[in-house]
Fold:
Amino acid sequence: MELRQLRYFVAIVDHGSLSRAALILHVAQPALTQQLRQLEEELGVQLLHRTAQGVLSTDAGKVFYEHAQAILKQVADARSAVAQSAERPSGSVTLGLPHSISGALALPLLTATRSQYPEITLQLTEELTGNLSEQLKSGRVNLAIQFDDGQLNQFATTPLAEEELHFICRADATYAKSEQSLTLQQALNTTLILPGLQHGVRPRIEAVAREAGLSLSNVIEINSIAILKSALLADMGATILPSAPVLDELQRGELRAQRIHSPSISRTVVLCASRNIPLTNAAAAITRLVRQISDGLCAEGKWPGATPI
Structure:
């Protein structure tokens, strides 16, 4: 198996046809077809379905595509690490962000990177937290922001902030209390709109409720922040989230946030890197910059409910 075969395969999948991939790669289509055939013979599986409209990945092809992307990225990172200078880090860095964090961090981080490290290309990918660990382990992302649930020992971690979770509902909802806070029991007694069990705030809420002898009984599961906000505005229920993802709606008075007590709920936000894949100088520079931006947003009150660690 050769790196060029991986590049060819990824290009074919990305462009959806052998002819388009051949044009992009500047390779004759028969040669491209031959390399693909050799790759399939070596793996002993069919990677692509050929159709009149182009090509589609088989189940095996979808799995191999993810690995091929990760391998090609690590090769590019290795080349960049050898070539770049510690004083002027350059190259590409991919950072994975959970949906509920990107609203606070993404734009300030992109702006700071362009200003301080113009030779670094920062690629941000927004994902569910349950998917970020696998991408980090496989090398598809260099860094990922996650929430410390006691299961991150396999990664090198840099604590960033402690983020408080609030009870959030439509401003005129019948269960929107006039008080500024409510108990966790009161919050759990409402219909809650939350991510699935392996994503976002859900594991932390489940853990705190369990420790308090409480349980979640009526939950609507939605894994998209955009759809979750729409459900809140439609008064389908309330949620337990940090304020940052719904800050615009809170400021417009469409949603209302209340503090939770007895007990309160917070989560520890950390920056993770692989223990097995060395960081390039560029990735190390972005690690420092993420910490700097995080501290600044907390100090300026631009990351509501977050306290720097």
In short: The chain has a mean pLDDT of 89. The first strand starts at residue 48 and ends at 51. The first helix runs from residue 3 to 15. DSSP finds eleven helices and 14 strands in the chain.
